[in-house]
Write a structure and sequence with these properties.
Elements (H helix, E strand, L loop, with lengths): L7 E6 L6 H10 L3 E5 L5 H18 L4 E5 L14 E4 L4 E5 L10 E2 L3 H6 L5 E4 L4 E9 L2 E8 L1 E4 L4 E2 L12 H13 L3 E4 L5 H11 L4 E6 L2 H5 L1 H7 L2 E5 H7 L5 H15 L3 E4 L14 H13 L3 E4 L1 H4 L4 H16 L4 H7 L8 H16 L4 E4 L4 H7 L7 E5 L2 H6 L6 E5 L6 H14 L8 E6 L11 E8 L2 E2 L1
Parallel strand pairs: 1-2, 1-16, 2-3, 3-12, 5-6, 12-13, 13-14, 14-15, 15-16, 17-18, 17-20, 18-19
Antiparallel strand pairs: 4-10, 5-9, 7-8, 7-11, 8-9, 20-21, 21-22
Helix pairs in contact: 1-12, 5-7, 7-9, 10-12, 14-15
Length: 476
Amino acid sequence: MRRFRRAKIVATVGPASATPDTLRALLFAGVDTFRLNFSHGTHEDHARVHAAIRALESETGSSIGILQDLQGPKIRVGTIAGGAIRVAAGERIRFVLGGVDGVADAIPLPHPEIFAAVMPGHDLLIDDGRVRVRVTGVTGEAIDAEVILGGVISNRKGVNLPGTVLDVSPLTAKDRADLAFGLELGVDWVALSFVQKPSDVIEARALVGSNAGLIAKIEKPSAIDCIDDILRLADGVMVARGDLGVEIPHEDVPGRQKELVRACRQAAKPVIVATQMLDSMVGAPTPTRAEASDVATAIYDGADAVMLSAESATGSYPVETVEMMDRIIRATESHKLYRSIVQASQPGSEETPPHAVAAAAADLAETIGAPVIVGFTSSGTTATRIARKRPSLPILAITPHQSTARRMSLLWGVHASLAGDVDSYEEMVERGAFVARNEGFAAPGDHIVIVAGIPFGRAGTTNNLRVVQIVDGREV
């Protein structure tokens, strides 16, 4: 199933979209990767969706990505007397480690890791930042604070700590059970929540291994501060603007988004921009103009993918939302300024032979007017290196591995095609030209550029470049 756009669409599956018929409609509307949000639903629910997607894959012959999104630790206040209390700016309040039925001078906060890490001057944001307090003092089991932004604190509301790095694993007992289940199902990507530091990614990698790609969700300021180290360890990044937008000022989010997209392009790692992209379409058949512009901004930035959350999971118009996102992407990519904007944010050259070969392939293909770049890849690395350049023509990635083809459904500009192993240089040329013709990317008379790693089948060896002309079904 060929897409006539470069950026990919990730859609969250939920009650509004979990039936086989709706999943099929979403795929044909433009979804490239389906997200299973393990913050909601049972294992049985997710297993049914996974099976339906794989059946759809068999029906259509397309490689479809499945992303498992782990919940991560949730920091919440305890129960409040009467269900809620109202606090005013300037008021002094206290959080306590123990206790129930909290009041203003004894609000339960049952998280010892907070009491061990927080310091005077740090802020606590409650209920997505609707209430902000500043720590004035800390003892063993009490935190004194001044209310900066007043409001209502009610039972079990979430707490964000933007200036505090907590000594807590990003993987709860629930996450570990969910991860084992997801890997047994055969998910293609795992998104790790609550990443604060590189060691969090290392911890998850030990469990995921090479069974799935590992995506670090960037939703904490501390993760931004060490993004280069996180990128070296992860296989991709999600710009999770929901929690990130709570923990940093709203006006800083657009700039941080651009920084993260550029860092991922520099590292040749896929990046997803997520959260509230077409949020009004949860209940309306059309988005706001500002939302359309938000999606377009991510595309101009060069993001690999944009993601729908509640819009496709619980909204009233899941299929229409995907169709709208598809139209916005295609309109943006066809705009006369798109190429110049994307090229203006082109990352610097990566001084390694594999990256140089991939970049040269992109430049050469554009220079000779080739209709496609063909990349043979075992692990997907060759495709990511070509995509890093954001060429103006499609990338046809040929792989013998279904798992690799599925993961590449998240990569910018890449159309994955399954084909058997090649054993010789001549077979590579013939196979590449045949698939390019068969998939509708090239015709007799066209020159195509073929990129591969030799020896064949060895991951990461992008070292060979070939120009092939297709003449009456023969390649010369």
